[in-house]
C-alpha cells in the first residue's frame, strides 16, 4: 500500500477484531434468522476469529511497516485503520 499511495495519500483497512465478545456477535445476529445466525456464528468463531488481529498486534505490525504508525478506531466487531503516507 505504501508503495502505490501518492505522497499525502491515505489507506483505510477495515477488518474483524480478534477480541470481539459473544454478546457482540449475538447482537449482530439478531434478526438474521436461526439458520443464517447459526452459520454466521460458526464461521465467525471457527474461521474468522483465528485469522483476525488484536489491537496490540495490529499496532505492532503497523509500527514495523513503512507507514510507522496509523490511527485505529474500534467498534463492536471490527477495527478501522487509517494509514497515512507523508508528503
Strand line-up of the largest beta sheet = 1-3-2
Structural class: alpha+beta
One letter per element, helices H and strands E, the order comes to: EHHHEE
Distance between the termini: 15 Å
Strand coverage percent: 15-25%
Form type: elongated
- Tally the structural domains: 1
Number of helices: 3
Report the helical percentage: 40-55%
Q: Uncertain segments of ≥5 residues (pLDDT<50)?
A: none
Number of strands: 3
Rounded to an integer in angstroms, the radius of gyration calculated over CA atoms is 16 Å
Largest sheet, in brief, is: 3 strands, antiparallel
Characterise this structure.
With 87 residues, the protein is of the alpha+beta class. The chain has one domain (10-84). Helix content is 40%, strand content 21%. It contains 3 helices and 3 strands, in the order βαααββ. The mean pLDDT is 93.
Features:
single chain, 87 residues, alpha+beta, 3 strands
Characterize this entry briefly.
This protein has 87 residues and is of the alpha+beta class.
Mind sketching the topology for me?
Blueprint: E1 10-16, H1 22-29, H2 34-51, H3 55-63, E2 71-74, E3 78-84
Antiparallel strand pairs: 1-3, 2-3
